[in-house]
Design a protein that fits this description.
By secondary structure, the protein is α/β, with parallel strands linked by helices. Among the domains are: 148 residues, no CATH class; 108 residues, Orthogonal Bundle (Arc Repressor Mutant, subunit A), CATH 1.10.10; 131 residues. 29% of the residues lie in helices and 16% in strands. It has 16 helices and 25 strands. The strands form four sheets. It has an 18-stranded mixed β-sheet that branches. A three-stranded antiparallel β-sheet has the order 1-3-2. It has a two-stranded antiparallel ribbon with strand order 5-7. A hairpin with a 5-residue loop joins strand 2 and strand 3. It starts with a helix and ends with a strand. 38% of the residues are buried.
Length: 697
């Protein structure tokens, strides 16, 4: 039903208006704020579109509404573009109230919104716009007033106002079954319902804000394994959720709800059992893909040679590229329209087998956007595109929020990226980029920064909003307390360093203050050689679940010095001489333990009685000196997976892990001696799957 999709688009518009309110320059201007709130209130009335009339009439009316709503979105984004451009040109002068109130763009914005709203014919009950500014304010400094416009009679609206922040009561939900790592999950069909009816009802019963998120999933190719990290950050950049207090928490909750509803399928788990990859359940993809394209949510193109004529009356707002797919009109009745690159909001590409063509197309498309009158692009996601061509004038994309370059293997980044004042996500992981422009640290809205081992040379003095900082390199020339001391909101932190003990102490003191930290990786290394890691108590990190330590440890901290919530612990090159299992067995939440290359140098290891109560996965790799391993009663009782690699001196696996009623489901042996493998085969039960991988070296 098209009227439902009108409400979905309204979610984005109202959120964009709210973001406009929060612009510092507008928040301090009561005239602008009051008039924009009136526009928002008018838009919210469309949440109660009447169900009267036949389906054809409602569909035509809804399509008309969509056209006008997209006009509203265009004006909101164009206004944001003008403000961003003025800010870059005039800098601090923009904060002067006289300067801002005289901006022609303010008057033009309000006037155009008023004209569009008159076409929609949707106004608050009193049918009155905000009062015209006081006559004491001269016309040269007053914002263009919104005139009073009579409400048309041809639109039927309910009286009750409905806002996005207070969704409709939850309806009775349909339940769907799904399983991990199953590419062909379909909803259960009950009571002789067709699968189409079940899927349609499941979608229709969703809250409006969840509809928007699940429709966006149809943008990805069917069965495409979407990194959850990528999906959630795209939702953020697209303004699908409110920005306060924590947008990351909101999108995470939305994701979990859609998984619970059976619409998102988890295809791969992380070691701590958190989702790593996902996809839209195929039945929902079939149902929603055409619907999302019909309302202009995205446009699928084959190559830029066929972009001059595009289907639909809404233009191209989000473009996706899938090699091997051809562009087609959505319906025979829809006329082709001229492609306008200035209105493109998002460009998302996928990991493609052909290298040169996507890279060339990206450069061509960005050139057309930059040379257009308006440059409204907010998402540029090139993950997996091999060495795309980026223009030097990247800073002309004033509204860009998301720049995804992961696995592009780019060699350098235009210096102009440091001028993208709206940028929230910059992902450079798995590239060849080894330096950043100093101006990157001045980006006040930057939240997620994934690097590829880049040395910190400039203090992030203004990037206090960062919640992800991964792939950073520090050395003894770095004044850690000055450069990082103000970053206290981090949730994910990955640092590689070559520091003296004194500098490491300063670093660990700062880390101990990161009360929101959930994932931490510390690597003390010079070139390819591990250095000493002077670990300090981390018990104050009460939200930390994933801890990865790479470096030589003189001693392992006591159990009560570890974060009490740690679920996944990885030790590499620790070179511990004392058996670590007595300490690690006391960690109350530990689910995954990875003892990797030379983390333990002793000959005997004992897992004591009652230890490792929640441990499910144990990996022991390259423990070259380990000969004996014993597991006492009531230890590791919940172990499900055991992976042993290149522990060539290890004599056997403890009997208690192999016999019933143990729950060991999966045993992986990699590059282990033949005698060890043969003995293990004789001792395991039929309940355990044995996987043997021989060395290929």
């Amino acid at each position: 039903m098209m009227e439902m999709e009108v409400k979905v688009v309204l979610v984005v518009l109202i959120q964009k208006l709210r973001d406009t309110f929060n612009e510092e320059l507008i928040a301090n201007n009561k005239l602008m704020t009051g008039q924009l709130q009136w526009v928002q209130k008018s838009l919210e009335m469309l949440q109660n579109l009447s169900d009267e009339g036949d389906d054809l009439d409602k569909s035509q009316k809804s399509r008309c509404y969509l056209c006008h709503l997209y006009e509203v979105e265009n004006e909101i984004d164009k206004f944001s573009f003008r403000i961003a451009r003025q800010r870059q040109r005039y800098g601090f002068l923009m904060k002067h109230p006289f300067f801002f109130s005289n901006l022609t763009s303010c008057r033009m914005f309000i006037r155009k919104l008023t004209n569009i709203m008159s076409k929609i014919g949707c106004f608050p009950e009193d049918h009155k716009a905000p009062a015209t500014p006081s006559s004491s304010i001269s016309s040269s400094s007053a914002v263009w007033p919104i005139p009073t416009i009579p409400s048309p009679k041809h639109v039927t609206l309910t009286r009750t106002l409905s806002t996005i922040s207070h969704p409709h009561p939850q309806k009775k939900r349909l339940t769907f079954s799904y399983s991990y790592n199953d590419d062909h999950v379909l909803p259960n069909v009950h009571d002789n319902q067709s699968s189409y009816e079940v899927v349609a009802r499941g979608y229709n019963d969703l809250r409006i804000d969840l509809k928007l998120c699940v429709l966006y999933l149809a943008l990805f190719p069917k069965d495409f394994k979407i990194p959850v990290r990528r999906l959630l950050r795209l939702w953020l950049a697209e303004r699908f959720v409110e920005r306060y207090p924590s947008p990351e928490d909101i999108v995470q909750k939305h994701f979990e709800e859609l998984v619970d509803q059976g619409m998102i399928q988890i295809t791969k788990l992380r070691s701590d059992n958190n989702p790593k990859q996902c996809c839209l359940v195929p039945a929902f993809h079939d149902y929603l893909s055409s619907k999302a394209q019909e309302i202009g949510l995205f446009y699928n193109h084959h190559d830029l040679d066929h972009l001059e004529d595009v289907p639909g009356p809404f233009g191209v707002r989000r473009m996706i590229q899938k090699t091997g797919h051809t562009t087609r009109a959505l319906t025979n009745s829809v006329q082709a329209h001229k492609f306008d690159p200035s209105l493109l909001r998002s460009y998302v590409s996928f990991n493609l087998p052909c290298r040169d063509k996507p890279a060339k197309e990206v450069g061509l498309l960005l050139g057309r956007i930059i040379n257009s009158n308006f440059r409204l692009l907010t998402v540029l996601d090139l993950e997996g595109v091999y060495k795309p061509t980026l223009p030097n004038k990247l800073d002309h994309l004033y509204l860009l929020k998301y720049l995804g370059l992961r696995r592009t293997f780019l060699d350098n980044l235009p210096d102009s990226v440091g001028k993208l004042s709206y940028l929230e996500t910059l992902d450079l992981k798995h590239t060849n980029i080894n330096s950043l422009p100093n101006s990157i640290w001045q980006l006040k809205q930057l939240r997620h920064l994934n690097l590829n081992n880049i040395l910190l040379t400039m203090p992030p003095s203004s990037s206090l909003t960062l919640v992800t900082l991964w792939g950073l390199v520090l050395d003894d020339k770095t004044h850690v307390d000055e450069l990082l001391g103000m970053l206290l909101n981090l949730r994910e932190l990955g640092i590689k360093f070559q520091l003296s003990k004194k500098s490491q102490d300063v670093l660990l003191d700062w880390i101990a203050k990161l009360s929101h930290l959930q994932s931490l990786r510390l690597r003390s290394i010079e070139g390819t050689s591990a250095l000493e890691l002077h670990l300090k108590p981390l018990a104050t990190l009460t939200k930390l679940t994933n801890l990865n330590l790479y470096g030589i440890l003189e001693t392992l901290p006591a159990a009560n010095d570890f974060p009490p919530t740690v679920k996944v612990l990885t030790l590499s090159i620790s070179q511990l001489n004392k058996d670590p299992m007595e300490t690690l067995g006391q960690l109350p939440c530990l689910i995954v333990l990875r003892l990797l290359g030379d983390s333990f140098m002793g000959k005997r290891m004992v897992c004591h009685r009652g230890g490792f109560k929640k441990l499910e996965v144990l990996k022991m790799w390259n423990l070259t000196e380990l000969e004996e391993w014993d597991v006492e009663e009531e230890s590791m009782e919940n172990l499900k997976e055991l992976n042993i690699r290149r522990c060539h001196k290890l004599k056997n696996i403890p009997c208690r892990l192999l016999i019933k009623p143990r729950r060991l489901k999966r045993l992986v042996l990699e590059d282990m001696p033949d005698g060890f493998v043969d003995l293990t085969k004789k001792r395991i039960t039929n309940d355990t799957t044995l996987i043997i991988n021989h060395s290929t070296i």
